[in-house]
User: Which sequence fits this backbone?
């Protein structure tokens, strides 16, 4: 086996702060990623209303996005503590609020978004499942930008590899000498871009929202779970394995089961309405 020459690989050493206010404080790429995700989501939601797809008017859209922002931040942070560092719940529970230290779990974010969706749907007396279908189509943009930010931050790195596009991540063990898969970019493509294109195709080219409420969110859960499991094959596990599976894979299997139930429930409802 030929020895690895680190000089042959790209070294990921971006400054995680886009604009510095002080030496260690400023506008971070991760914050910009969240902002871009919400901007794209707001644009899509406006288009949905303009085309008669969404029942939420501009004022209601603002409240929906505030609720989603709170849901994704609170759920993502609490999910990270619960799923990846549960020992902090008893030893240092106040760190749940230390969002500046990093640590957000996408699966926890989905739980927070589901709670926000239920709250808004009930507030405006709209269908929960219809609202969930709309909301799930907004999420992939945030996942796309978020994973790109993970790459820029040099976090959540991939497994060791010598493929031509492997990257050196200085924060990883032996980061300056061991090339790894840029798994963040794989996940940005799979979880973000692919799911974004799929959800937009379903909304604009099929009658799924009208004929089968709840099916699209089930498809999103199932599709995301499958693509996340695929991406996990290239990602270095960031928590202890469970039955030989990474934490992300384990949670995704549970998510897929929930998604399949959602699809089944929606199809049953459609069958009854057509009977």
Assistant:
């Amino acid at each position: 086996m030929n020895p690895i020459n680190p000089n042959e690989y790209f070294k990921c050493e971006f400054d995680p702060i886009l604009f510095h206010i002080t030496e260690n404080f400023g506008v971070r790429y991760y914050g910009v990623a969240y902002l871009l995700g919400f901007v794209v989501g707001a644009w899509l939601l406006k288009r949905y209303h303009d085309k008669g797809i969404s029942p939420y008017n501009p004022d209601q859209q603002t409240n929906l996005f505030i609720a989603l922002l709170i849901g994704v931040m609170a759920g993502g942070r609490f999910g990270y503590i619960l799923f990846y560092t549960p020992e902090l719940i008893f030893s240092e529970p106040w760190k749940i609020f230390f969002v500046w230290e990093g640590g957000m779990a996408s699966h926890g974010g989905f739980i927070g978004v589901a709670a926000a969706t239920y709250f808004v749907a009930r507030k405006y007396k709209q269908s929960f499942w219809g609202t969930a279908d709309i909301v799930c189509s907004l999420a992939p943009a945030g996942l796309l930008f978020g994973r790109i930010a993970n790459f820029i931050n040099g976090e959540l790195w991939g497994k060791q590899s010598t493929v031509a596009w492997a990257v050196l991540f200085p924060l990883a063990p032996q980061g300056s000498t061991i090339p790894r898969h840029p798994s963040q970019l794989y996940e940005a493509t799979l979880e973000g871009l692919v799911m974004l294109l799929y959800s937009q195709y379903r909304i604009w080219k099929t009658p799924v929202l009208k004929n089968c409420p709840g099916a699209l969110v089930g498809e999103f859960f199932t599709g995301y779970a499958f693509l996340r499991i695929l991406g996990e094959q290239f990602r270095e596990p960031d928590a202890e394995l469970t039955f030989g599976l990474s934490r992300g894979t384990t949670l995704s299997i549970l998510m897929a089961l929930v998604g399949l139930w959602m699809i089944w429930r929606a199809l049953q409802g459609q069958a009854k309405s057509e009977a």
